[in-house]
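Practice problem. Given the sequence and the SMILES for zinc ion, write out the predicted structure.
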Amino acid sequence: MHWADVLAGELVKEKKKKHVLATGITPSGPIHIGNMREVLTTDAVYRSLRKRGVEADFIYVADDYDHLRKVYPYLPKSYEKYVGIPISEIPCPCGEHKSYADHYLSSFLNSLREIGVNPKVYRASEMYKKGMYFKAIQTALENTDKLKMIIEEISKRKLPKYWIPFNIRCGKCGKITSAKPVLYDYPTIEYKCDCGYEGTVDIREGGIGKLPWRVDWPARWKMLGVTFEPFGKDLGTAGGARDTGEKIVQEIYGYPPPKYAVYEFILLKGKGAMHSSKGIALSSEEMLNMTPPEVLRFLIMKNQPNKHIVFDPGLGLISLVDEYDLEECVYFGKEEETRGMKDLEKTYELFQPDMVPKKIPYQVPYRHLVTLVQIDKDWNEVKKILLRTGQIPKDLSDSDEKHLRQRAEHAKYWLKYFAPDMIRFEVKKKTPKVQLAEEQKKFLSTLLKILPSLEWTGESIHNAIYEISEKEKILIKTAFKTIYQVLLGQDKGPRAGYFLSNLDKDFVLKRFKEAIK
Ligand SMILES: [Zn+2]
Ligand SMILES: [Zn+2]
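Answer key:
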């Protein structure tokens, strides 16, 4: 059975009328790739529940009322003054978003649609400002001593003497980290801030402060009726927020702790685990921009949540797409099943951002697409090459074209930011200035005699190159190098025969003639 069905099965056993599956993030920096795993893990369980006819909601809580903890390496020094202020109240670093939190959150949320995930989004800042937390705050303050005991006992951390389970937002400096409570007398709290300000807040009003994270999380479980929420293994450590949360939600809020799955990190090949707090790492958005959505889903769905995933943003990405394409062929009965393709019947469905296609989508090897988008960035030109070389049929369906075009876009992003240099090339518009050796010139002139009457296919060009190299006793390495030098201005490039067949024949002949002039 697929892991998503096992997790959904656990939930079904509880016989609840409705399930609420929660995910979330504190958007204090580029959203790390672990969050992508959280969202897709939950999506798998959500789909499994829906398939069984169980009513379920999928929510995403952005804790944008959390404060800026420090000036992260990706922030300008001037952000020092905002440390301690909720990230929804801090200006956006680029000037184009509503707030600091939105800067990191909004594009990620938009990109979720592409992978077929559509959670209902809650923003903590709005929840606090609308007063949704009022009851939870009141209950917490009434149970200050008990909460303090639970947190100190489980986390083994000592809390300050006058600790209360509420971080008051100073009416003057706006920080939620520096106001100390002086007196709580329902419904008001008198406080004194480090900035010198003394004031009073009424807890029935919205936006006057925030529950500390260890209390906020369980309070939210009850408020939103959460029944399932996965978390990264860093939160699941003994004495961590999940541990205290379980006890707090039962004993203070009288609500059962949600079921969960602990998910492992996604490691970048050669770089270890990624944490947004440690500086710039590969973000969720970048991972999605470079990986076709069905392939990204494939990567997450085929691995048990408790197994770490190694993601290779280099050449490994091409192999990953090939692996996906092969499984797709097996699913549609075009290839034999091989080892490791467990539950394909079920998992292929989970790989799809949308509906399962009725017939196999038209496949063009990804490596080839990576070459074509470098020959021409414009999709219509790429399509022309594919048509001319017979790699796609004239009656390609709209959905197949959309699919290939989307893959081409992902390939372009990957090439721009992540592809290794050895993959990159550019067909030079003018003949590059290279000093060709005599044997290189001889190779080109012999090739020029053969090419005009040659069938313009990868295979026949490939064979012609080999024949000439043998006959003229020119190293095949030199032959290839010559082709790359006069077309790309570099010594290496994509497989020559196939590469030339994708270029316009007249263009290639003209270039070779110019090169030996
Ligand atoms: Zn911005
Ligand atoms: Zn203050």
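Check your answer against the key. Residues 398-417 form the longest helix (20 residues).
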